């Protein structure tokens, strides 16, 4: 079906006010005819940006409808980091065909980008940047910028080097425009915080956060500029990392797919959840053995059972609070593994304070509403204080220990801490009961 | 003590390679002499940026050491949104003195910014921007940019309007520089996603995330440009919002102060934690009443107690998984409150699947290791399936219900869900036991 001129005119008006992301979303639903017509109505530059946002299937479909010439134009417009993403998504034979259309000068660089490990700065960076000698004139810099490729984010700042090609600083494009000077020198900022290609993308995200950047240079081991990462890429990284943390805290194996909740099959959802549930269920059987161990005590003092859930929940909650705070402090670099003594002291103080407050309130409640005798009241409240202190200590120290052994401390901010604390709580409770109830 | 020339020279070299954030950190530790000397060595522009990053105490100290002229220069260099932050932090008499130094043209705008509610887009935005008529020439636009105030992030894109002053689009500074055209028309992007001053800053952050922006225009109710927010501000918002979510999930009352972990007093830490701990402890007493209710049953079948922790933990974990996933889906707008039926069906399916898998594995474990009789095995495993299904349903639906009543669904992803699930689990467990054990 060929679209009428009137339809095309309407489509053009519609495309004009839509964002690239919205157009990409529409492409997923539109007919192949409407898609190809739209892709021809968009400017080449916009189409390259929309293309990057499409799903692999639609990318494949579009490319097979394109003429050779159209494919070539698209590939040359697309930004280097986006092109790498696309090449990684497409089947190998299609990808190698596309690589033939890449500007021969850029091809080795693209090949290099394709080789960086996932979640590394190298896989995130763009190779579109402007680099100029420190001693250049403003006019020379402007000339280079005018002939540079890459999107607006890649020209936010340009980079300066010395004769050994080592990155020494950067200049804001806006300063260059506003400047009355002839030479660049006075505009150069020397407070560079470069990252290296092999570093984890999280390090780059931390720097954007800490220094509130818009762009960050990427250098090789010799300190020479090889690319840059920009704020738009970092938003994606931050989102991804925070989803990962929350997944771990909720006892979920992280899904790579990012399918919206309602569109996931219940089977893939169940798979995502079952591993932790099973692991924790089996860990929780230890608490069962503890209870079986003290079965005789429980048989004579059944009322003891009534306070088990309250003690376990309080311990779990107290431990989760501490492990979350310490995990966060570790990831913000407020706490290092060498600070373990500071964490220990802090959690001991907080545990003692909160434990005593809770025990006092609980004692009043037990006396007023449950009418338990003194020995029972003392058992429950002493167990509560000890549980809170121990949970806080474990919650504070286990993430530090995990970090020390190069494990993700967030695992300790998850449901694991509850299971660990539960077992210890029960043992303490029954020991204290044996003491106070004089058995 | 006056610093020697040699020391000053060294200081200047040191400042050159430090980032603004690092200099601000040093200011917190340095002597007042070294601070004032450094502030005079920095360019006015950099000092304005460093100043913004200082703590209120150091800001006050510095300002009281400054001459009238120096204060005036600082105030005029500082960007409007940063100035508003500073004015809000300082004592009222100091703030009103500073306001006198503000460019009279800008004063009403600053006053307006001071009036926006916390966490609104208005409180976040900067009033530094360039707005130009659609029909202008490139030369006119460049002239406006050359004479604009504000940092490089405020000139990343400039905005265009029609004669009624309504925002119609934007142009990238880089496109302007690279353009060979005489008129702006062909460079204008019309896919604007403006936000309004009274909106929550989270809406702006969502747009940056979704469309991977570097800057976002802010308009008034009539669609006229009043300011813009930039990626650097948004990093702070995202960080703040994610800290808030994690706090709620860990049962912490959020602290506004953002003091590093090791520097917080144990008393302020205890305060942050005690409210939820007490609330949850008191809620958990319901579980105690349930157990007391079935005391007779427990007395004759003490072994029932051994499986209470495992059931409670499994239910809590299953509920937390669902509530976290649904809360996340709600905040990403993958799920709306009207989708409650979809959530119900999904969680029912997942609950049934995971519940059966867990029950089967648990049954085998009970038979092999605990040597329990069939009735007991059936009791525990039936209770496990029912618990998992119910926890998944509650975990999935409670966040949707919270959202429906305009409450933060994250509360349901926190420890509250565990407490709710615990009570229900216990009632079901004892009911099922009564049935299978034939009492």
Word description of this protein:
The structure is a homodimer of 439-residue chains. Chain A has helices spanning 5-17, 20-29, 32-41, 44-52, 56-65, 68-77, 80-89, 92-99, 107-114, 121-124, 138-146, 173-178, 201-211, 231-249, 266-293, 295-300, 308-331, 340-370, 374-404, 415-436; strands spanning 131-133, 157-161, 167-172, 195-196, 215-219, 225-230. Chain A starts with a helix and ends with a helix. By secondary structure, chain A is mainly alpha-helical. Chain A folds into 3 domains: 5-115, MgtE N-terminal domain-like (MgtE N-terminal fold, Alpha Horseshoe), CATH 1.25.60.10; 131-247, CBS-domain, CATH 3.10.580; 275-436, SLC41 divalent cation transporters, integral membrane domain (Tetracycline Repressor, domain 2), CATH 1.10.357.20. In chain A, the strands form 2 sheets. A 3-stranded mixed beta sheet of chain A has the order 1-2-3. In chain A, strands 4-5-6 form a 3-stranded mixed beta sheet. In chain A, α2 crosses α4 and α17 (308-331) runs parallel beside α19. Chain A is built from 20 helices and 6 strands.
